[in-house]
Amino acid sequence: MLTYPIKFDPILKEKIWGGQKLKSLLNKESDLTNIGESWEISDIDNGVSVVNNGALKGKTLKDLLNTYKAALIGDKNYKVFGNKFPLLIKFIDAEKDLSIQLHPNDALAAKRHNSFGKTEMWYVLQAEKEANLIVGFNQEMNSETYLKHLKAKTLPEILNFEPVKEGDCYFIEVGRVHAIGAGVMLAEIQQTSDITYRVYDWDRVDANGNERELHNDLAIDAIDFNLENDYKVNYSKSINKVNEMVDCPYFTTNYLEITNTIKKENKVDSFIIYMCVSGEVEIETANATERIIKGETVLIPAAIKTFQISSKNAKLLEVYV
């Protein structure tokens, strides 16, 4: 069964800050109004992905893990994660600013939530003029100064605002304060976790006049005030070659710009995920060919050791553990 590239139904999430770009620019079909996220591959309990192609159509990602185990995710991954998929893959559209937030590390997340931590990275697909991201602080920081600004509701004064454009990449370590700004659409690769500590939400309220819950008591112990300002990722863009973007203990992400046919050999003992961020490609295994277009994601099982990718002009993010 694990002989072809597997696609999943996107799980669309309505958010107070979401918009319409996931429909208009990434071809997601939905009647929802404010779509903030498309969970492309997920093993989160309240949103498990379902296969939408081939012989495994209708099976969940949990079904695949329970049945195929290491053949799906690789021997080394199965020894660590068992029947739990290690990554959550998303597209995000921020029509409005997201809350200022951070994520706990593995130790805190396990202790408090029985969860993984949430190390993540962003790849910007599209950004409006003057759009930005918040990543870290704009000065040396400590808990005393941070809490003073938090109490005075002047937190944005000490945050680092980064202007962004298509192709920019950022690595968001656990403990780093961050937010996606209005007008940014991006791909997000992260550990399998839905744990977010919201610390400031721009004083906005919902239709009933209620503010969203904040998590400042939990957050203060989770913020890493010692992180260096090395969050922006510089990477090469050689054509028809693998260009490393992020290589961390939780995932590796590479950039591929393809204008021909490239042959691939899986030497990493892992599943491989491809997110199409521009154009379209065909991925051919010994037994099947699958086409993906901009905004689509595909999983190559670890059991598939050789395949090829063909395109006249496409950009992909390649992800594995």
UniProtKB/TrEMBL annotation:
Record keywords: Isomerase, Metal-binding, Zinc
Top-rank lineage group of the source organism: Bacteria
Mannose-6-phosphate isomerase cupin domain: residues covered: 245-320
Pfam families for this protein: MPI_cupin_dom (PF21621), PMI_typeI_cat (PF20511)
Molecular function GO terms recorded: isomerase activity
Keyword Isomerase: yes
KW Transport (keyword) present: no
Ranges for domain Phosphomannose isomerase type I catalytic: 8-115
Protein's name in the database: Phosphohexomutase
